[in-house]
Amino acid sequence: MATQRLGIIMNGVTGRMGMNQHLIRSILAIRAQGGVLLADGGRVMPDPILIGRNEEKIAALARKYQVERWSTDLAGALANRDDAVFFDAATTQMRPTLLARAIAAGKHIYCEKPVATNLREALEIYALAKRAGIKHGVVQDKLFLPGLQKLKLLKDSGFFGRMLSVRGEFGYWVFEGDLQPAQRPSWNYRTEDGGGIILDMLCHWRYVLDNLFGNVRSLSCIGATHIPERFDESGRKYRASADDAAYATFELEGGVIAQINSSWTTRVRRDDLVTFHVDGTHGSAVAGLSDCLTQARVNTPKPVWSPDTRQPIDFFEGWSPVPDTQVHDNGFKVQWEMFIRHVVEDAPFKWNLFEGAKGVQLVECALQSWKERRWVDVPKLAA
């Protein structure tokens, strides 16, 4: 079977996530394996053009990874009919405008989240894409993590019995920038630049909760700016105006209660940078990025509370790993392959701009809850 070309405009790939996960570990990895395999046995070879505002950076990136096409001219790239897909991983604040331009140019859309900084813009972009009849998708990478794939397997098999609760812990210590350089860009900590952990992370928690544990019905959230001053990439002190931690409780359909802490101001003493502890009547599981451990009802220990003696039970024992029965590829790459098949052969792909808008909705509800210091219902959106 012949291999067909798919031109992809990649905007915002000089940043860490866009470069590492989308360019190197997804598109270039797909090219190295000979393209995406289609249902009829044919293949699709992605042909990227890298777009960026900084000519020196984008040219250097293209040279380093032997990408033939690059440009600082986004308008020219959008005008090229030979490129069918527009991908954006640049700033959230500019995303609605860029996506609208790409939709107007007739491009299929694939983008990072959040899709916008507010629900109104997110729904407007979805409506534009729907009217234009183009294919559209939003990155929902955590669903494809090996650890969460194993959680889904446990749920689908009935391992948990009746699911009771989910406790998520995400985060790590991001250095302030004086003692050591910060691991995250300074704009993450400025509200005026689209920063804040609620905007960054609750879009993730929406699709994780909805797809694995139950649709979100309501939430209570409090945010915090624990570190009020940080140092930017040039060593200049600045005021951190955005939240660097969020503590949220969610009520899900089916009565499941979820609690997720998100923090860039915590030191890690757990199995991974993100963990989900799921309890059910028949068993429990703890999943990280790659691994998942289980404890069934029949081998659950029976502790007795006693403040007078050292705890005799090692609670880290008695947990069994879910085996790696299949090869788990990079989650970003897996979703890219699914979206490419969606564009070329109309294969199913549910994670579209409407799903992205639902993530932004949860952000707005969380910010409202924090501001008004109360539980907030999450209305059902109409597609």
Quick structural summary:
With 383 residues, the chain is of the alpha/beta class. It is built from nine helices and 18 strands. The mean pLDDT is 96.
Q: Which of globular, elongated, flat, extended, rod-shaped describes the shape?
A: globular
CATH superfamily of the largest domain: Dihydrodipicolinate Reductase, domain 2
Q: Span between N and C termini?
A: 38 Å
Provide the helix percentage. Answer: 25-40%
Low-confidence blocks of residues: none
Strand content: 25-35%
Key words describing this protein structure:
alpha/beta; nine-stranded mixed β-sheet; 383 residues; seven-stranded mixed β-sheet; Dihydrodipicolinate Reductase, domain 2; 31% helix
Report on this model:
This protein has 9 helices and 18 strands. The protein is globular, with a radius of gyration of 22 Å. It has helices at 16-32, 55-64, 74-79, 95-104, 119-132, 146-157, 197-212, 331-345, 353-372; strands spanning 3-11, 36-37, 43-51, 69-71, 83-88, 108-111, 136-138, 163-171, 216-224, 229-231, 237-239, 245-252, 257-263, 274-280, 283-287, 292-296, 320-321, 376-377. Helix 4 (95-104) packs parallel to helix 5 and helix 5 (119-132) packs antiparallel against helix 9. Strand 6, helix 5 (119-132) and strand 7 form a beta-alpha-beta unit. It is α/β, with parallel strands linked by helices and 383 residues long. It has a 9-stranded mixed beta sheet. Strands 1, 2, 3, 4, 5, 6 and 7 form a 7-stranded mixed beta sheet that branches. Strands 10-11 form a two-stranded antiparallel ribbon. The protein folds into 2 domains: 3-141 and 331-352, NAD(P)-binding Rossmann-like Domain (Rossmann fold), CATH 3.40.50; 146-327 and 361-376, Dihydrodipicolinate Reductase, domain 2, CATH 3.30.360.10. 31% of the residues lie in helices and 25% in strands.
